[in-house]
Amino acid sequence: LDVAVASNGLALGTSNIVHQINPTTNAISERTDSPADGFSSLLVHRSADRTLLYFLDGNFVFLYHAPTDTFDPAVQTQSSIGGASAAVNRNGTLLGTGLSSGGASLDTAPGFNFVHNFNTLDSGIAFDAVQDTFYGVNSLRNQIIAYNTTTFAEKFRFDIGENVDAGATFFGPGNLVASQDGHYLALITPTTMRVFVVPTVPLAFVSSRKTHGSAGVFDINMPLDGNPGVECRSGGANGQFTMVFTFGVNLTSVGGASVTDGTGMVSSGNINPSNVRQYIVNLTGVTDSQYIKVTLTNVNDVAAHHTDAISGEMGILLGDTNGSHSVNSTDVTQTKGQSGHVVTNSNFRQDPNATGSINASDISLVKVNSGHALPETFSQTHAHSAAKTR
Length: 390
What we know:
Helix content is 6%, strand content 43%. By secondary structure, it is mainly beta. The strands form seven sheets. Strands 5, 6, 7, 8 and 9 form a five-stranded antiparallel β-sheet that branches. A five-stranded antiparallel β-sheet has the order 22-21-24-27-26, with no helix packed on it.
């Protein structure tokens, strides 16, 4: 079924047993010391330095150590694993495994001790061959997401460019691999194979910003994962909104910004002179009750890193003061409860006309929009749990 070449020069191939291939002599022999006897669909993945091979089949895994030419005993896992979604990090100390129930798990090698779950990664996974970065496909957002394997914090994400399904097949759709130099990722999609330059300018978060009169400037965070956040404030007669992209490092240049999904257009965009980690995008013509996605292109930072394209998305729903994706009596009651209060970080959503004071005008605005709702997203209509128990 599969084959990998280890750092000692031996190639190990699998069926329901492990065969050894000597590339020098072309001799093929059975490795009777492997714990593979009786397995039905044994697959193998290797570390970037090729010192460790990771064999897996259903609920069992075992390791081959190239420096000593030895196998570890097979270990039974507590969750069913998917052989096509598996990876080994650069030095063989971490194993990544796709779970048949959805999501991905990190475990240590050789002890196979649980480290961390990534519940939103439901297709192919891979490790960077150079640095401690773990990649995975999120089919709900059609994105590849990168995580730090020490803090497990998200480093960045980027759009795949087409719809992908959950799950991965060996040598088929969902299979994700990283290049040996760490510069590229390749993903087999339903229509083709796509190669991506690894973006190294990390997007920290995206927010929607408005000034509420003399009360000041207030931002609504737009999550990078899961259902998009909701901007509940008015864009005025011309549908004007501001999205702020905040990166983890100082920017040097951004090629531009455009609306890549939804109704609206970019009126201007610039690096914030007061905070050069931020890129500010001003929008106009944005309509209500929709999701809008804005994509930045050719992003560069002070460390000479480059990202081809990176996106942020938000829902627009006037009067949705609690961010529930619909406007109803709860929003009316919430706004009434803040009427007459000073606008602060804790109640600025109840000032949907963004005047800096919460009063009858805000209550009326929410009432008029009661019954409006955002369209359901894929993740809302196909919600599923990818939790793994140990």
